[in-house]
Amino acid sequence: MDILTLFPFIVLIGAMFLMTRSAKKKQQQAMQMRDQMQPGTGVRTIGGMYALVKEVRSDTVVLEVAPGVHAVYAKNAVGAVLESDEYDRIVHGDPELDTDTPAVPDDASSLTSGDEHTAEDGAEDRAEGRLDLNKTDDASAGTSADDAEPKDAKRNGDADSK
Fold it and tell me: 32, 35, 38, 33: which is closest to 54 by C-alpha?
């Protein structure tokens, strides 16, 4: 028998060995991470929920998902054990001060420029009960609501052809 005929089988067996070895290594790391859980530790479940560990049992863990609300989860449902400062930053919203990122305005009035109406004009109109529904686009200036074709007629074809 020639060695070249056995070579593809040897490569296939070697690849399977390496894949199972890496999967076992990841599984052992996950077990070690879950064993690090102690009451008071912040965790993230595989569903993306953040909670505090209240009690660790053999196969389950009791998590406080909201103040005073406890739920029992399987240990396998814990996706990550978080450091206390990271958990506090995520859950309590302690932002890291980053002066390089631009601030997002609370309203879109500062994003529009050169319009005939300002944000103050819009606020005055709303306070007086007026609402401006006119379109400012030149292409739609000649059409009215009576001239508009129903959307269903466009979608389903002409209603008169049935």
Answer: 38
E strand segments, the chain: 42-45, 50-56, 60-66, 69-74, 78-82
pLDDT tens, 120-138? 555 555 556 555 566 665 5
| Closest by Cα among 60, 50, 47, 58 to 84 | 50
For residue 98, pLDDT beyond 70: no
User: What whole-number distance in Å separates Cα of residue 64 and Cα of residue 71?
Assistant: 6
From 67, 63, 91, select the one nearest 77 (Cα to Cα): 63
Q: Residues 108-115: what's their mean pLDDT?
A: 63
Indicate yes or no: pTM above 0.85: no
